[in-house]
Specification:
The complex is a heterodimer of chains A (about 110) and B (about 110).
Chain A (H helix, E strand, L loop, with lengths): L3 E4 L2 E4 L4 E8 L5 E7 L6 E7 L2 E5 L6 E7 L2 E7 L7 E8 L9 E2 L3 E5 L1
Parallel strand pairs in A: 2-11
Antiparallel strand pairs in A: 1-3, 3-8, 4-5, 4-9, 5-6, 7-8, 9-10, 9-11
Chain B lengths: L3 E4 L2 E5 L4 E7 L4 E9 L6 E7 L4 E4 L2 E6 L4 E6 L8 E9 L7 E2 L3 E6 L1
Parallel strand pairs in B: 2-11
Antiparallel strand pairs in B: 1-3, 3-8, 4-5, 4-9, 6-7, 7-8, 9-10, 9-11
The chains are: A mainly beta (about 110), B mainly beta (about 110).
Chain lengths: ~110, ~110
């Protein structure tokens, strides 16, 4: 089991639905990330939070809305998604101020948009 | 342009054999190089992280090497096991502020009995 917990493991949603992905870590990491991974491709960075503030947004469409309510939690709110948004969504965390700190990934949420 | 290239794209070996995966990068300025293992349907797990001053690092049966002059790294797996079947991803970090990690496309390793 990983130290980064993501829920739900699987999610099927229609294009008009609103849903949220959740991520939790208790390692005291102050950097948290959302990645999107399509089949047989490497993860692509979406958002980075540092000290609960959004520090990087990789030009992600507004139908994806991140939220970091506290240092342990990270949410990704989904609205009006498209079928091409179907992918594995990975959350990760790391220590800040230590450039050699590894990313700790959760096992992801497998999202299917119908 | 910052890039990370991995080879081979896929590899099939017999259980108990050794193998070596390659990673070439053009990231500058270089900070560190990471190897991750990703099992199907799960998140990547860190195997090693190396800075420019380190030329080898081991984690059990996994040994990573780094040649910062030629900008090449390798991951050697000794006495492979069926559980080594996974995707192995090379990731390079730049010292340039605000630069995201650069991921390679991965090598898919299949270990058969």
């Amino acid at each position: 089991d990983t130290e980064v917990t993501q829920t739900p493991k699987h999610l099927v949603m229609g294009m008009t639905n609103k849903k949220s992905l959740k991520c939790e870590q208790h390692m005291g990491h102050r950097a948290m990330y959302w990645y999107k991974q399509k089949a047989k491709k490497p993860p692509e960075l979406m958002f980075v939070y540092s000290y609960e503030k959004l520090s990087i947004n990789e030009s992600v469409p507004s139908r994806f809305s991140p939220e970091c309510p506290n240092s342990s939690l990270l949410n990704l709110h989904l609205h009006a998604l498209q079928p091409e948004d179907s992918a594995l969504y990975l959350c990760a965390s790391s220590q800040l101020g230590q450039g050699n700190s590894p990313l700790h990934f959760g096992n992801g949420t497998r999202l299917t948009v119908t | 342009k910052n890039q990370v290239e991995q080879s081979p794209q896929s590899l099939i070996i017999l259980e108990g054999k050794n193998c070596t995966l390659q990673c070439n990068y053009t990231v500058s300025p270089f900070s560190n190089l990471r190897w991750y293992k990703q099992d199907t349907g799960r998140g990547p797990v860190s195997l090693t992280i190396m800075t420019f001053s380190e030329n080898t690092k081991s984690n059990g049966r996994y040994t990573a090497t780094l040649d910062a002059d030629t900008k090449q790294s390798s991951l050697h797996i000794t006495a492979s096991q069926l559980s080594d079947s996974a995707s192995y991803i090379c990731v390079v970090s730049s010292m340039k502020a605000g630069t995201a990690l650069i991921f390679g496309k991965g090598t898919t390793l299949s270990v058969s009995s």
